[in-house]
Amino acid sequence: MNEPSVSRSDSLRGRIKIFFAWLKRGVPFGSGILSALLAFILYNLLFVKPTQLTVGDVNDSVASALASATPPAAYSANVYQIIRPSLVLIEVEETHKNAKADHGLGSGVVVDSFGNILTSLHVVEGSTTIKVTFADGTESEAEIVLEQPENDIAVIQALDTPLSVVPAVLGNPNSMRVGDEAFVVGNPFGLYSSMSSGVISGFDRVFRSKGSDFEIQGMIQVDAAINPGNSGGPLLNRDGHVIGIVTGILNPTEDNFFVGIGFAVPIMTAIGGMGSPPY
Prior knowledge:
Helix content: 25-40%
Distance between the termini: 126 Å
Number of strands: 12
Number of helices: 5
Shape: rod-shaped
Strand order of the largest sheet: 1-2-3-6-5-4
């Protein structure tokens, strides 16, 4: 009559043994988890946390990076590199009956692939010898092939043109405004390939050269430095495009130096006598 009761007791003891056996097997796993948790907590308590970046730190880093970056070249530097291969030094000699010779200097710019050079007429007019020096060092005698006295413009051609000529890119002076940047490159006082910069001071000016009653209409006025030797050289915009041919300066004194007012013939007027624009 007692056998069923003994069987239930044995069953309970069996279950308890199974539970303790499972618990014994799970202790190492639980100990591992507990150890890892304790190690994580101790690490965060014992070691200093890394400093968080602030907005100021980020701004300082950006400023430092910008300060070390190479700035882009100035517009003037780009203009000079663009026009220099097209620039020409002009040297003239005028021999008189008494065998005395006068020498002069001027500038010019190659405007087409045939090597035609635009300059001011007063630079070469009346000369017995014209010598041109190209950017690559090539020297040659030259002759006048076209004159525009009403605009003080001449086209000259070298007798010995370099194998490779680099014509300048012609711009549109009508797209310019007063205050726009303007650059003059030429040979003032024989200082080859010199550059000056300024702004467009006005349009449609009337220029009268010293000692002459002849007036040139429609001139561009600039304040970029112009001196003897610059005549015939290019007036350029910030893209290095020729927008005019330098003609002269206005100086109320008897001295022949720049006081801040120079004039150039618009390029479309200067090339008008050459037929179609020499692009």
